[in-house]
Every structure is written in structure tokens, then in C-alpha cells.
Amino acid sequence: MKLGLSTYTLTWSVGVPGYERPLQPLSAVALVLLTRSRGLELLQIADNLPLHAMNDEELRELKRTADGQGVELEVGTRGTDPHLLLRYLAIAELLGSSLVRTLITTSDLAAAEAQIREALPAFEAANVMLAIENHGLHTTGQLVQLFQNLNHAHVGCCMDTVNSFGALEAPDTVIAALSPYLVNLHIKDFDIRRVDHMMGFTILGTPAGAGRLDIPRLKAVIEANGKAGVNAILELWTPYEGSVEETIATETRWMEESIAYLRSVHFIEEDLRYATGNVERESI
């Protein structure tokens, strides 16, 4: 299993709408360099840094940089409109991405299914996977039914370990139900705490390995379902710390702690140059 970063690993460094902009927002090219500097070879660029806003020359420069650094790119968007999916399929082909990650933004699953069916022949022809993320709008049962209805080799699940709390489902339920359809994994750890007046709970992000997600069990379930070869993407729900720059410092520390933990439980194909300390790592 290959471990990678995402634009949702360093969300505050990219920029969060409604909050002050970072002093130096991370670009897609900068994220490639940062990924390589951490000894990783995979980067997923999602909808918070929209690739369709880049022109073809900018995309080609991104591809050249990624190739030069030995970093595999994955592309992501949100929505199931066939025109959008086909636009991202073209971007995936240009960048050499083996998949397009998306999520369903309508409660009408029948309508989403029809849209996905319209786009799937092109994905099959290009041999690119459409990875549909559980995002809390639908239950795992509904998503399982969707995958069974589609019954197509070029569509599967981008399984996020925490998102389905929005559908009142805990990670154990999500992992058991969706692992058979897994084509991409988002590792996101969490904690659940009572509020100070004791009347209610909050769900908070944590570094990987510091929260309640049983990551070794997650790995075991994935392997038991024959999905050990899927790519795993680290995502973080880093809380706002009062200023964007302080929050960026926290999410950077969380990224480092998470990578170290995931290495310790072998959620990574280690590059021996980094394992032996032969390559100098850059700071963010």
C-alpha cells in the first residue's frame, strides 16, 4: 500500500474559504515538492485546489515537476455531472492519474447513478477508475447498493474513515461495508469528546495514530478484502488555532506525526533513500 498526501492534508496551507489567506498559499507544484521532501511518492489534488482552473500549460508543468520528483498524481473533484467527470478524466489522462476521485452532492442517488453511467464508457476506454467517496450524505448501505447497481470494473469507493459520521455511522461500520468496493483510501483519525458543560459531544480531528481510529485493524480488514494494493491518502481535520499561521504550524506538525506513525505500522512503501537518510528533506 502506497501512502500519499492530499490538498486536504494541508488544507489551511492551501487556503480555507471564509478565513484569512495564508501568507504563502501552497500551489499544486509546491505540494509535489513537499510530498517528495517527506519521502512520499503520491499526491492527491482534490477539489479545494481545483485543477480545472489551471490551463493546459500549467497542468503540463505540474506533470513535468511530478515526473521529475517521482511523485504519482491523483486528481479529485466533487459532483457527478457527466461534463465535469469527463473534464476531469481528460485532466487525469494529461497528468497520468489512474483515478478521478469525486463525491455525490445530491440526495437523489438514482439521478447520480444515471449521470455516472453516462460517463463510465469513457472511463473504461481510458482505463481510469472513478472513485466515489463516502461523504456523509448517504449511508454505507445506499452506497453499497449504488456500487452493486453499477457493477462496473471502472467505478469503486474512495473510502474515508470519518466522513460517514454525518450519516450516523461509525468507522467500523463504514470499513466493513465499503472495503469490498475499495479503490482509494482516505486515512483520517479522530477523537470524540464531551463539551465542557457535559451536554453533548464534539468530533475532532487528530494526527493519525493519536485518535480513536484503529489503524492496524483498518489495514487488516483492507488486506482481508484483497485490497492491499490500493493507494492510501492522509487527510487531516486540523482545528482552527486562532490565526491561519498558527493553524498551519499545527497541521504541519500533525502531518509529520501522522507520517511517522503510519510508517511505524507499515502503511507505506518506504523509499530506501529516505529510510537511510541519504536525501535531505526540505521544510514546509
UniProtKB/TrEMBL annotation:
<dbReference type="InterPro" id="IPR036237">
    <property type="entry name" value="Xyl_isomerase-like_sf"/>
</dbReference>
<protein>
    <submittedName>
        <fullName>TIM barrel protein</fullName>
    </submittedName>
</protein>
<dbReference type="InterPro" id="IPR050312">
    <property type="entry name" value="IolE/XylAMocC-like"/>
</dbReference>
<feature type="domain" description="Xylose isomerase-like TIM barrel">
    <location>
        <begin position="109"/>
        <end position="262"/>
    </location>
</feature>
<dbReference type="InterPro" id="IPR013022">
    <property type="entry name" value="Xyl_isomerase-like_TIM-brl"/>
</dbReference>
<dbReference type="Pfam" id="PF01261">
    <property type="entry name" value="AP_endonuc_2"/>
</dbReference>
